[in-house]
């Protein structure tokens, strides 16, 4: 009955019929822009939007910006899953999605302003961009905007990201708890989010009272390509004495893991009998892409897109609400590329010198 009274109030205040008010509040698209704007404005003033579930989006079009490789046939599978999450969350809402390439560094500012500032665009989602100028421009467009897997130091835009620091910590802790001490992390550090993940790994070293030595425990690549990962790991193994070779490798991506495995094979190292391999992240929906599933931290990348849409919904309904920084947690996915504690202990006993 209360809901009916509110619809009567909105209809009386705006001059539109109750059926039109009902269509707008239920997210239907077959109403005029003028009617929709008037009804949503009145509903917001009456506090009706605060009472609605997060299932409704009061926009007709969203511009989605992501690195261009996201849209290539063999591009970034992580970000592709994010876009699938956005599409999934808006599928039943009659929302039109348009996609544009926007690089992580030195993005095309003119393109962004042209597309994001278009009067037909009601909201913006920006995926994986580091350029602070883009963030500042987005904040001036007077449109709800959500960042995915980015860091806005000005705290002006809502953000949703994996908890990179916690992911790095969890991955390293998983190995430490199984008795590993000689661990080599191989990763690209071109983005701040990746540096945060490395900080989580270092935190695990401190937690287990171990010293992190970058010369011994870290191999850095410029990109995530398997070829570069293979080269970096091969060089590392060739330049370090065998007794200091890692017992386990923490790998920064699924793509890099292919190169790491080739480097281990070239050096006659069996996985996991001689070297265990663990990923610091991979997509929940793509865990078997390597042909062989790898133990790692599964990141809810599709859920990043879904939660971004919910943040847009919240910003539309509550424009004065505090800015959100939502962190999604990963989850350990266990396969057969890291030895169990029992098997590791047995292996350690075989290589330890006897007391005789």
UniProtKB/TrEMBL annotation:
GO terms for molecular function: DNA-binding transcription factor activity; transcription cis-regulatory region binding. Residues 5-47 form the HTH lacI-type domain. Pfam families: LacI (PF00356), Peripla_BP_1 (PF00532). Keywords: DNA-binding, Repressor, Transcription, Transcription regulation. This is LacI family transcriptional regulator. It comes from Superficieibacter electus.
């Amino acid at each position: 009955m209360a809901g009916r009274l509110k619809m009567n109030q909105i209809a009386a205040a705006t001059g539109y019929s109750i059926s039109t008010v009902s269509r707008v509040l239920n997210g239907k698209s077959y109403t005029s822009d003028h009617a929709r704007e008037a009804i949503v404005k009145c509903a917001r003033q009456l506090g009706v939007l605060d009472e609605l579930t997060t299932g409704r989006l009061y926009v007709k079009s969203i511009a989605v910006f992501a690195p261009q490789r996201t849209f290539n046939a063999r591009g970034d599978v992580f970000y592709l899953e994010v876009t699938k999450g956005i599409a999934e969350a808006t599928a039943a809402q009659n929302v039109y999605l348009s996609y544009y390439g926007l690089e992580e560094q030195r993005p095309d500012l003119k393109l962004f302003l042209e597309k994001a500032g278009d009067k037909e665009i009601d909201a913006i989602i920006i995926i994986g961009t580091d350029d602070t100028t883009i963030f500042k421009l987005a904040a001036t467009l007077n449109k709800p905007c959500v960042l995915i897997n980015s860091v806005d130091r000005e705290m002006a835009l809502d953000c949703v990201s994996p908890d990179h620091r916690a992911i790095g910590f969890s991955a390293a802790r998983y190995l430490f708890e199984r008795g590993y001490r000689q661990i080599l992390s191989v990763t690209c550090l071109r983005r701040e989010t990746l540096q945060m993940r490395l900080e989580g790994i270092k935190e695990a070293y401190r937690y287990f009272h171990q010293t992190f030595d970058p010369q011994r425990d870290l191999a850095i690549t410029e990109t995530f390509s398997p070829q570069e990962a293979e080269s970096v790991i091969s060089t590392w193994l060739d330049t370090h004495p065998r007794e200091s070779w890692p017992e386990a490798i923490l790998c920064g991506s699924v793509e890099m893991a292919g190169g790491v495995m080739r480097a281990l094979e070239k050096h006659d190292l069996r996985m996991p009998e001689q070297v265990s391999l663990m990923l610091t992240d991979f997509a929940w929906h793509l865990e078997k892409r390597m042909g062989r599933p790898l133990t790692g931290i599964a990141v809810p990348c599709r859920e990043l897109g879904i939660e971004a849409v919910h943040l847009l919904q919240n910003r539309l309904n509550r424009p004065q609400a505090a800015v959100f920084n939502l962190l999604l947690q990963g989850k350990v996915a266990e396969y057969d590329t890291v030895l169990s504690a029992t098997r590791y202990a047995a292996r350690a006993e075989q290589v330890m010198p006897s007391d005789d």
